[in-house]
TrEMBL record:
InterPro entries, A to Z: AKG_HExxH (IPR026337)
Positions of region (Disordered): 1-30
Highest taxon, organism lineage: Bacteria
NCBIfam families named in the record: mod_HExxH
Protein's name according to its UniProt entry: HEXXH motif domain-containing protein
Amino acid sequence: MTHGTDTGISTGTGISPDADTGLPAQRTAATPRQDLARFAVTSHTLRALASTEPSEEGTRLVRDVRRSKRLLLLRAVLDAAPGAETAEHWALLEEAERQDPAAVHDVLHYPATGVWAEETLRRLHAPQGPPPDLGHLGALAAAAALRAGIGFKTTLRPVNGRLVLPTLGLLRPQGPGRLALTERSWGDTADVLPLHALPGAATTSLDDLDPYRVPPPGTATGPAAVRPARRLTPKGHKRWDIQWSGAHTLLGRYDSARAEEIGLLLRSVVPLAGGSRSSGATLPAAAGSVLARAQAPPALAATLVHEVQHGKLAALADVLTLHTADRTPRHWAPWRADPRPLEGLLHGTYAHLALAGYWQHAALYGARGAWAQHARIRAQVAAVLPALRAHPALTVTGREFVDGMATAERAMDATPPPGDQHAAARRTLERERRAWCEAHPELAPFVRV
């Protein structure tokens, strides 16, 4: 069985999900839109993703969807923002791509670029609001040109006394006004602050610089109460290096497949501000990025496993309709006190299923306390799966996906925790469920036992 999409994602220029092609060309009014590529998701790939276990086909689908969606967003920005300046910036991107396609690909597919593209498109279609930041396209072009090593000259306007070049870092101009950039503008000088590369990671950066690492204030595209940290001090970077290295070591030791998956799907980590209620968050607009609080390596490793799952499910939901439910919060989620809509329950269950698997791997390796973590989280997942599987708003595809999750949860019986830890976790969870239903009597009918 193959699951198609209702709306297909493509660049609008005939670029298929399997083609590693470059920039979308500017569209003319006469260009037909029938060339939208349609992703085909086989049942094998759907079930591989449903299990949360890393797989080559699942990772490839997630990356293809992200790439195609990003190019489509850029295509839409170009269509909505004609003009000489936009054309000049795009021409520089095209010139850089001819020299080094990989460099341009990395700049345009950097997570923060997606936030900028979505916010710019929103502002272009809302003329009464704040003006779009089209100058940022010039920063993207300059970053691509610098990384491609081509000769160029362009002029950009710094914001608040600094000019951020995505994937590179920021320039601090000597004076106010517009800044002329050439291929010699980026170097080892006091006016350059490079983006911080995390140790041992081939491509993952710690991003405390990009203005679009999260949506601008006043937008409703991200989780509530999620605030990025301000620019870190060298001491803050060192602390993150230590915690990241420890987490990376634990992931490689306990679950090398998940460690590899994180390396393939995670491009940037955005530090959360102190006092953040959440240990981590994922923004669909910033595909390939995770917001995380500074925390001890075991907790950071679990946060990375958890948040990467949200990114995988978001990519799948971009091409498949899993349910038709609204956003009404009415479902019990054991990991939260507040009721959740079906979308939130599905995401939470999926991420916690991965965590249960990760802690099981860690426990089998001998990690202290891992069996207790596994038993607690698996009991939570098992408790809400019946409500998910029976939900009338699931599509046929959504039901197959949730059935795949249930199969993965049952497979954990092959290596249960010692003693009665799983039974004890279920008893504790049942008490919590009863207490929640008493606190929300109007929602008790939505809690399946």
